[in-house]
């Protein structure tokens, strides 16, 4: 099994999403947003046009952040992976997060700045899969004010 760590940033343009979709307060029925408002970038592998390539058994770490001047957001679920990628596991809770350590993956660096999610592929096949990223936008009062989903194409190699 390949143990390389791929550090992946999921950036969400909350301002553009709110302007185009508005707020949706239903967590069970999130609005679908334009994939152009969500971008994926990764280190250690090529990530272009929302197609992220990684080996089927590699651990993949995700970081979520908001871009633009809008409200902050957090990712709270990944759906519709067609069994190519498992549900993510939030690596830590309550504001303490873990940064992947490529030299020693079993001992990540602890910090308090970024929320991390962890995906592992269970792909028996290789190729593209569409995954849904569900996220919530948090208002300036700290309340969850909008729920959204974005479908993104990911390539396993």
What descriptive keywords fit this protein?
157 residues; mainly beta; Immunoglobulin-like; six-stranded mixed beta sheet; five-stranded mixed beta sheet; 1 helix; 13 strands; 5% helix
What report would you give on this structure?
The structure is a single chain. The chain is mainly β. The chain has a single domain, classed as Immunoglobulin-like, CATH 2.60.40. The chain has one helix and 13 strands. The protein has one helix at residues 14-21; strands at 6-13, 31-32, 38-43, 47-48, 51-54, 59-67, 73-79, 89-90, 97-99, 109-111, 116-120, 127-138, 144-156. Strands 2, 4, 5, 7, 12 and 13 form a six-stranded mixed beta sheet that branches. Strands 3-1-6-11-8 form a five-stranded mixed beta sheet. Strands 9-10 form a two-stranded antiparallel sheet. β4 and β5 (51-54) form a beta hairpin. It is globular and about 40 Å long. Mean pLDDT is 64; it is low at 81-98 and 112-116.
CATH superfamily, called what?
Inclusion body protein
Mean pLDDT: 64
Name the structural class: mainly beta
Secondary-structure element string:
EHEEEEEEEEEEEE
The name CATH uses for the topology is Immunoglobulin-like
Gross morphology: globular
Helix content: under 10%
Number of strands: 13
Number of separate helices: 1
Q: What is the end-to-end distance?
A: 14 Å
The radius of gyration is 15 Å
Question: What can be said about the biggest beta sheet?
Answer: 6 strands, mixed
Look at the structure and give the CATH class: Mainly Beta
Give the low-pLDDT segments.
81-98, 112-116
Instruction: Provide the domain count.
Output: 1
């Amino acid at each position: 099994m390949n143990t390389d760590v791929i550090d992946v940033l999921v950036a969400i343009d909350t301002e553009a999403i709110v302007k185009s979709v508005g707020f949706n307060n239903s967590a069970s029925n999130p609005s679908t947003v334009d994939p152009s408002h969500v971008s994926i970038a990764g280190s250690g592998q090529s990530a272009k046009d929302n197609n992220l390539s990684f080996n089927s058994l590699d651990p993949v770490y995700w970081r979520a952040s908001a871009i633009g001047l809008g409200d902050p957001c957090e990712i709270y679920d990944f759906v519709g992976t067609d069994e190519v990628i498992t549900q993510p596991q939030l690596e830590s809770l309550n504001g303490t997060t873990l940064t992947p350590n490529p030299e020693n993956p079993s001992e990540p660096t602890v910090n308090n700045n970024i929320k991390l999610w962890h995906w592992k592929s269970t792909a028996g096949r290789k190729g593209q899969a569409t995954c849904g990223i569900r996220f919530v936008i948090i208002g300036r009062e700290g309340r969850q004010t909008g729920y959204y989903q974005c479908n993104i194409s990911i390539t396993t190699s």
